[in-house]
Amino acid sequence: MRPHKFLCLAGALLLCAGTLPLAAAEGSGGFSLKLEPLVIGALDTDVDTDSAKFMEYRDLGSGFMVPKLSLSGESEDGNRYLTLNFNKPGKRDGRYTIEYGLAGKYALSFDYNKIIHNFGNNGKLLWTQTSPGRYEIADPTQAALQGAIVSQFARDRAGITFGFLNNLIRPYLATAQEVDLGLQRDRATTRLDVLKDRPVSWSFEYYHENRNGTRPFGGSFGFNNVTELPEPIDYDTTDATVSGRWAVKGGALNFGYRLSKFENNVSTLIYDNPFRSTDATDASAYSSPGSGSIGGAAKGLVDLAADNKMTSLFANGRWKFAGNWFAGGAVTYSDMKQDDPLLPYTLNTAIRGIGFDGRTFDPTNVANLPVSSADREAKVLNLNGDLGTRFGKNFSFTLRYRYYDYDNKSKRIEFPGYVRFNAVWENIARVTVPYAYTTQDVSAEFGWNLGPTADLALSYARKSWDRKFREIKSSDEDVLKGSFDWRPNGRVTVRASGELGDRSIGHYDTDAAEASFVEPEGASNLPALRKYDEAARKYNSENVWAQFLLGDAVTLSVGVTHRLDDYNKSQFGLKKDKVMQYNLDFSYNPNEKTSLYLFGNISDRDVDQAARQSGATPSTRDIDSWSVKFNEKNDTYGLGFTAKPNTSWAFDVSGSYAKADGNADFTAFVGGLPLASPGAGLPARTAAQDIGNYEDFELFSAKLKVDYTINANLTVGAWYQYEDYTADSFINEGLTNYLPGALLLVGSNGDYTANLVALTLKVDL
Amino acid sequence: MRFRGFTITLLVVAAALVAGWARAAPQAGAASAATYVGSETCATCHDKEAAKLAETSHGRAGFAAKSPHGCETCHGPGSLHVDDPDIKANQPTLAGKSAQELSAICTTCHTSGAQQYWAGSRHETRGLACTDCHSVHNFKSDNAQLKAVSAMDQCFNCHKDVRAETFKNSHHPIREGKISCADCHNPHGTVTAKLIKASSVNEQCYTCHTEKRGPFLWEHPPVRENCLNCHTPHGSNHIKLQRTTVPFICQQCHSNTRHPGTLYDGLRAPTLENEEPNPLASNRLFNRACLDCHAAIHGSNHPSSPYLAH
Predict the structure, then answer these.
(1) Is residue B296 pLDDT above 50, yes or no?
(2) Comparing A641-655, B60-74, B126-140, B177-191, which segment has the lowest mean pLDDT?
(3) Could you write out the DSSP letters of every residue in B194-210?
(4) Do residues A416 and A360 make contact, with C-beta atoms less than 8 angstroms apart?
(5) Is B185 exposed, middle or buried (0-12, 13-18, 19+ CB in 10 A)?
(6) How far is the alpha carbon of A616 from chain B, nearest alpha carbon, in Å?
(7) Mutation target among B209, B210, B232, B293 for the A interface, most CBs of A within 10 A
(8) Is pLDDT larger for residue A596 or for residue A163?
(9) Interface touch B295/A58, C-beta < 8 Å
(10) CA A667 – CA A688 distance, rounded (Å)
(11) What would the pLDDT profile of A273-290 be if each residue is shown by its tens digit?
């Protein structure tokens, strides 16, 4: 058993051991324990495919179930309390909480939350994981595949085609093992609050999460040999926080220390090249195996997520003063560190590296790296202050200031070159770049109570960015906000808000993108492109929502939301992003026994972007440009109905329907690079091809639940749930395990239809 | 220092406000003629409310230690109401009070902890009262005495657009009940925009996605600045909560020489199962597209990975 699991288990046992006997002991003296009504049942699940999407975040497997198990207790005087809540105990998505305390004095809590995340089922894998992070293909298989390729290359290199490779790999795929891809997060939190009734109180919190499983991961050997593997995940995250609160009249000061530690128990991924069993170099590093080259590495090497640690000191407080004034401040100073040992440049023994002095070296030996570990460190300082008042009954004013500084203190490390795709030494010296940035926000907000039923607020903010090593060193954004909230009576509520933003930028330094080159070779990105996170932009957003109580039983609400981000000075890159949404809710609650609600939301999003296709140097020809307009429409509807016609029967109906329909409309020009070179024997392209299934999805879900109460202690029930999911996306349309240049897992996470039936018994003991 | 002038101006305005209005603070209202009668007296008629209250911390002795007046702590002294319950004007009801007045009752005690930044917060400024989300007597949730059955449902009462987002194909497990809006946001106010609990968006994301925290040998600067540059946290039609799907989201910043600027408009790569060659086929427009090769897009520690490949 791992130490962290032991700690969590020990914590839970300690909590139970400490609290239950204590509670029981007090039971004789007036502590009463009560088991809440217990629901047990049986679930039968029928799904027509093996799609992982059905149980993406939930465990709905057939079998015995306990939806919830609760126990509560308190002392006779109500001071001491104990609650245990177990949701879906025994399931992969179960949750367990225990709380014990003395009201107003101390509180002890434990929370254990299990979260699943499934990505795909029955993916096909040629490799076998022989140890954590090591994927191997049997030597004879690897040798046979390489032998066939070498023979063909010698006989007729043009014969190394997709068909040839597919025929080679197909028999092995037919017998390949199947893997399910998914993660399990098990997170435990223990918290103790003490001296809650004293001016200075203390809290201790310990959090631990283990994340275990696999997720799809790219382990490419080049454009002609992209391999997809299950990334082995075995992460431990541990956080510990000690904090205090000093409560004084009119305010409080909070202070503390937090340690957060991330550990990856599988930090390296080594995987066999399916098409090579012996190391070789490959000058192009792109096209192997193919008619141009059959070289490359026998093994790939990936450095998985690095261990890291963050420590933080924090203090914050808020005080009220005379005249309705308040002032607050918050400071957090954090240190983020990462010092994982570095892996060698490659495992390919056929490659020789070339140092700054021109001498060759063995790149598989970590001793030949300029440093042995990453030695990264960033200091983060966050300062916040606010000052505000409410003067008279009708006006308020708040000033805010925020400073956030991410200061990357890491040293720049120069590497004489690197190994591309594990296949060839690139004698291009590179240097690490400790990107850093600072943001500042200053804002002033005025609020005006227009009588007891209406509120108006106006604010102005200026945001600023200062960056190191990026294209835009500094920029400012002016933001105006306004809101109006009106409740003329108890039956009508109207809320409206709007926001205008204008970000201006100075010189756009295109050479900054080449900061990781020891000897810059000149910008490779289009000079006119503006990266949208830095680019000049104007945006506006508006939101209007109104709710009406019609009679005593009906509530109706309607809303409209709009936002436009306009990168009006960007010739290339993201140019526009616009979203329009409408929503409507209706509810009918004629009495305590009956309720009905309906909701609908439709949204329409348009995104425009542009690019230009280049060769070895950035193109200056307009005809090489292309653009795309994306449109995404989302419709979401839901309903719920509950009825209790008498003391025996209860009905509950719920359902939802969500549909996404996306389209991508491309434009390119005849004669330009994007439409050039269709391939030998193929007709010339006359237009760019649009994408009609730019991620289309539909999910329909309906559930009917019936309960029959036999007596005060016994209720029997049944529910039926139907789900139908369809996915149609260009990105995985027609995917097979082997494509030209790609060996994929293709785990199933597409269409499914599910029928679930459950019988339940509710017993009040 | 570009900020100095602006900051000074604002501070001057603040100082003027202090000088001008601090003295104009309203005086406390006239004392009521009513006196306290005790919770037991209230419970003789309002038994349902009293029973529900007893289930909560407001009904426990810890509360009594802070206030001896029980129900009347919030409702005010009730002797006049007890003397003649039919006189409406004497009923210590909270109905009809403004949002400001209602919240003032709660913030008499709830001034620190999660409620510390309530004054001046977005929800307070928009005229919301504590009682818009919480109920002392008629709550439905297991935690925090919410009017809805969960924090998610409570938030979705107003944030309809976010509710719709959670129905999208890629979403956090909010609808599934495994994480809550309150895991990332504090609705009572924070020092970070959008009521984010952590010091920044990225630090909020790192609380669950710790492996992305770094710093790394090779960094991807927009990743380091803001996760929301590429991801939308409430829901997306594209994998991994991407704002626009790969490869196009990458091409919103990268129109470099060679492959990043290529129009990847092939709809399907040819396979032996689909032998008809597609003249527009691209081997970079399927599966995870750019991420098939640039797998370490959040940052890499590999000496040979300046392009975030491995």
Answers:
(1) yes
(2) B60-74
(3) GGBSSSSHHHHHHTT-G
(4) no
(5) middle
(6) 6
(7) B210
(8) A596
(9) no
(10) 6
(11) 999 999 999 988 788 999
d(CA B197, CA B144): 17
pLDDT at A684: 73
**Residue B145 corresponds to which tokens in the numbers above?**
């005495």
> Which of B190, B262, B301, B307 is best to mutate for the A interface (most A CBs within 10 A)?
B301
Q: Is A525 on the interface with B (CB under 8 A)?
A: yes
Give the pLDDT score at B280.
42
Is residue B141 less than 8 Å (CB to CB) from chain A? no
The two three-digit tokens of residue B8, written as one number: 């000074």
For residues A468 and A508, is the Cβ–Cβ distance under 8 A?
A: no
Give yes or no for residue B7 having a pLDDT over 80.
no
- Cβ–Cβ < 8 Å for A495, B126: yes
Asked if B208 and B201 count as a contact pair (C-beta separation under 8 A), the reply is no
Chain B CB within 8 Å of residue A447 CB: yes
Asked whether A227 and A288 are in contact (CB, 8 A), the reply is no
What pLDDT was estimated at residue B23? 36
Residue B271 tokens read as 């396979």
User: Positive or negative CA dihedral for A609, A614, A620, A625?
Assistant: negative
User: Which residues, 6 or more positions from A6, have their beta carbon under 8 angstroms from its beta carbon?
Assistant: none
Residue B27 has phi, psi (to 5 degrees) of -80, 155
State the complex-level ipTM: 0.94
Q: A-contacting residues of B 41-80, CB under 8 Å?
A: 54, 57, 59-63, 65-66
Q: Are A480 and A459 in contact (CB under 8 A)?
A: yes
pLDDT (0 to 100) of residue A689: 82
The rounded Cα A511 to chain-centroid distance in angstroms is 31
- The closest of A408, A427, A406, A409 to A418, measured between CA atoms, is A427
Token pair listed for B280: 């527009």
DSSP letter for each residue of A631-691: EEEEEEEEEEEEE--SSSEEEEEEEEEEEEEEEEEEEE-TTSGGG----TTPPPP-SPPPB
Cα separation, A220 vs B308, in Å, equals 12
**Do residue B116 and residue A254 have CB atoms under 8 angstroms apart?**
yes
A63-74 and A32-35 beta bridge pairing? antiparallel
Q: Decide: helix, strand or coil at residue A316.
A: strand
